[in-house]
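Final paragraph of the annual report: two paired records, presented back to back.
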Amino acid sequence: MFSTLDLAAAKQSYFTTGHGHYSPAKSEVSFELSQMAAKDRGEILEVMIADYFNRHGIESQRSDTQDYDLDAFVGGRHIRIEVKSAMKAKATGKYCFQNIKPENFDMLFLVFIDPDNGPQVRTVSKRDVNEFTTRYTRHHMGYTMGFKDIDDGPVLTSQWDIMYNNETVKQ
C-alpha cells in the first residue's frame, strides 16, 4: 500500500514543519540521536566526548572491555568515566538516566538530549553520586536518576568545558 518514497515524503513534511518532538528544525544533532537505538546513541556519545577530550589535549579513548565507558588521563592520573544519556520524554518532559553503577567510575557524564537546544553535557561529582546512593534504592541493573529538567534533579550537575592547559578538566 505504501512505499519507502511515501514514508520519506511524509517524514520530510512532518519533521520540517517542526511537528515532531525531536525534529531537524529544532536541533539536527538531537534529532539524529533520537533516531538511534539507545545502545548506539550511547556509544556514539562516548566517541564524541572522547574525541572532544582528545582535540583539547586530554588523552581519552573508549573502553570496550571495562565496566565503564572512557579512559581519560588528566595530569598523569587515570580517570574512569561513565557516560549516560537520556531523551526528554514527550509526555512528562523528564529525563531518566538508568543503570548507573557508582563503583565502576570516577566521574559521571550525563548527556541530556534536549529536543530544542541540542545535547547538553553535565558532570556529576563522585561525592554527589555517592550521596545519591544513600537516599535511593538500587535496582539489579544499577541506580536510576530522574530529572524534571537539566537543572532540576536528585544531584547537582555542572556544565563542563576543558581548560586549554592540557592538564586539567574544568567543571
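The closing record of the year follows.
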Amino acid sequence: MNLTKRLDYIDIFKGICILLVVLGHCVSGIPHFYIYAFHVPLFFMISGYLFNPDSNYNFLGFLKKRTTSLVVPLILWTFIAVPLTWVLPNYFPTERLFQMYLPPGLWFILTLFLCETIAYPIFKLFRTKNVWLACILISIVAYIQHLNPDRLPYNIDNTPICLIYYLSGGV
C-alpha cells in the first residue's frame, strides 16, 4: 500500500487500540478477557496493513531503518526502566522485570521488529496472493511452539502468532 498522507481512520483505530491497552491494564475479569482477545491482534493487523513491501529500500536498508526506529528506542527505554526498578520497586516489580528480560510492555516493540523483519522477504517472495500459504505454515510453527511450556527470552515466542496477524493485515 502506497501512503503519501496519514489516513484518519487508521489513526482512529490506533487511538482506540491505545485506549484499550490502558483499559485492559486497569480492569479485571470479563472486560479484561474481551479486551485482550483483540487489541494486540488489531495493532499487528494495522501495522501489516501499513507495511509497504514495494518501498525503495532493499532488505539491509529496511533493516537499518527499522532498527533505528524500533530497536534503538527499545534499548534506550530499557536503560531508563531498569534503574526505575531499583528506585521505585513497588511500582516496577523487579522479579517481573527480570523474568521477562525486558521492562513490562516493551515486548510489543521487539515482536513488531521481528514480525516486520520476517514479513519483508515473505511479501517480496510471495506477494499478496500467496501470503496465506505463509500464514498457514507459520500457524503450524506457532502451534508447535505453543506446546512447549518454556517461555523464550524477550517473549519472542509471541512472534509467530503476531506474525500471522501482521501478514493478514498486509493482504
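The helical segments are 8-26, 30-50, 59-87, 94-100, 107-126, 131-147, 159-170. This concludes the annual technical report; the extension proposal builds directly on these records.
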